[in-house]
């Protein structure tokens, strides 16, 4: 891997580098969409005979080396702003790890401003490094902000990833408030930065070489329910293209990460977009977007991470020159920027655990208490998109309705959600009052199995009056 290291850099082994990390350090790591995170260093820390109480700050989801191996050794005491592995989830829910869920767009600023713990060391993955720069690997996230904030830096150079991956990168760093200027990005596919992240050479402690690949996504085959939701989404979007003037010339879309989001992306190829330019502007680039690039549906795509399957990564690596003509990776402060979501009129399409009768959305907690993964960037898009769509099945399994009287945990309020889509149909909630929303959601989105119970709940709650009537005695016990 000598062509990956430029200048006088001499690599060391992971164990030597890990010794630079204090036992109670705040560690900021690269990684987003479970790719682009350091692997050798976390494993060396997990295997070290040390009593560690680390605070780990990532850009988004990371792999098993951090959220499984480190967690299972008891080395992680605190975690921000996202977690996605069973071991981490269990530790958060039993209180072993102190965890705070955050909207993604502001995490870089929050680290820089000390709103969440300032990192003692940044550990990042790269495909190449020089004396004052490195080229990130398969994600960018908030890595640049973490490197700027941390007084110490350790870089892992991963030889399993083509160095040419830097052709996708567009790293643009902003000043902190109150000196922040408008983002000079006028078009979803514009480039305004460079492929490298710069750092102070005095902060670099060690460079480690690794050949460990990411643990790519494994997308399940779309279910019949997924396909019905996708069909309903496509039908709604086609009508919206004709109805809404902001989509006359182009449309920009965002999808949440996961199997449902990937299935919905694939369905867009069946929509007649006419002569409009179609862009993806979001956090993660998934397999469904590769298909849209190849068949010409997408004019361009902007993200902060390649969250691809094994096959998707192979396709990307085999044709980097072609894909890099229309695909861009940005920092998460731009991929999730409220200003850019608004400027480009991005349609936000995200999934949920459940939706209540007035349009409040729970994306993260089962039973109101047990966290799943994290809110991620869905709040950035739901809060700032001109059109926000929540997609989900009408039921989980055969006994649990996903449309409930009152969400026991709320990530997105009724004010943030425009449309709810299940396999049953589409509830367009725009302009409707709370009582109208409850009827729309029951009639168009509820599973038939639960319609009578939901209507009975509405009848009980409305008898007591109020603007958004509830029967609090039975709101959470209606199915027990």
Report on the architecture of this protein.
With 480 residues, the protein is an alpha/beta fold. It folds into 2 domains: 2-210, Glutaconate Coenzyme A-transferase, CATH 3.40.1080; 224-462, 3-Layer(aba) Sandwich (Glutaconate Coenzyme A-transferase), CATH 3.40.1080. It has 16 helices and 27 strands. The strands form 6 sheets. Strands 1, 2, 3, 4, 5, 6, 7, 9 and 10 form a 9-stranded mixed β-sheet that branches. Helix 2 runs parallel beside helix 3 and helix 15 packs antiparallel against helix 16 (448-462). The longest helix has 20 residues, at 224-243. The model has no long low-confidence stretch (mean pLDDT 94).
């Amino acid at each position: 891997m000598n062509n990956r290291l430029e200048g006088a850099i001499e690599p060391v082994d992971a164990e030597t580098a890990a010794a630079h990390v204090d036992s109670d350090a705040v560690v900021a790591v690269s990684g987003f969409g479970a790719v682009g995170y350091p692997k050798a260093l976390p494993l060396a820390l997990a295997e070290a005979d040390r009593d560690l109480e680390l605070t780990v700050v990532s850009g988004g989801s990371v792999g098993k080396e951090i959220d499984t191996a480190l967690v299972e050794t008891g080395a992680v005491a605190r975690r921000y702003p996202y977690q996605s592995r069973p071991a981490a989830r269990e530790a958060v829910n039993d209180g072993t790890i102190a965890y705070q869920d955050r909207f993604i767009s502001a995490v870089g600023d929050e680290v820089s401003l000390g709103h969440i713990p300032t990192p003692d060391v940044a550990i990042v993955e790269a495909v190449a490094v020089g004396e004052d720069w490195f080229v990130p690997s398969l994600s960018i996230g908030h890595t640049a902000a973490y490197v700027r904030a941390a007084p110490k830096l350790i870089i892992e150079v991963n030889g399993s990833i083509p160095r040419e991956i830097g052709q996708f990168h567009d790293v643009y760093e902003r000043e902190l408030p109150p000196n922040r200027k408008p983002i000079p990005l006028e078009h979803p596919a514009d480039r305004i930065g460079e492929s490298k992240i710069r750092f102070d050479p005095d902060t670099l402690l060690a460079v480690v070489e690794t050949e460990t690949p990411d643990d790519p996504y494994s997308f399940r085959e779309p279910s019949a329910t997924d396909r019905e939701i996708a069909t309903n989404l496509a039908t709604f979007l086609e009508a919206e293209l004709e109805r809404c003037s902001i989509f006359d010339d182009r449309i920009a879309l965002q999808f949440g990460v996961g199997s449902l989001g990937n299935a919905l992306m694939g369905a867009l190829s069946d929509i007649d977009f006419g002569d409009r330019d179609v862009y993806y502007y979001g956090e993660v680039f998934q397999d469904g977007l590769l298909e849209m690039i190849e068949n010409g549906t997408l004019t361009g795509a902007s993200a902060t991470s390649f969250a691809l399957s094994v096959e998707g990564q192979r396709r990307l690596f085999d044709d980097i020159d072609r894909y890099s003509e229309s695909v861009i990776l940005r920092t998460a402060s731009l991929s999730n920027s409220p200003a850019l979501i608004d400027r480009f009129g991005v349609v936000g399409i995200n999934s949920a655990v459940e939706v209540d009768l007035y349009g409040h959305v729970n994306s993260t907690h089962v039973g109101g208490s047990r966290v799943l993964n994290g809110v991620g960037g869905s709040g950035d898009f739901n809060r700032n998109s001109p059109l926000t769509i929540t997609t989900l099945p009408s039921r989980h399994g055969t006994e649990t309705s996903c449309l409930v009287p009152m969400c026991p945990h709320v990530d997105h309020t009724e004010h943030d959600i425009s449309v709810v889509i299940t396999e049953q149909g589409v509830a367009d909630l725009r302009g409707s009052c709370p009582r109208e929303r409850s009827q729309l959601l029951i009639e168009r989105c509820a599973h038939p199995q639960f319609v009578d119970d939901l209507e009975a709940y509405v009848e009980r709650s409305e008898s007591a009056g109020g603007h958004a009537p509830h029967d609090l005695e039975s709101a959470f016990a209606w199915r027990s």
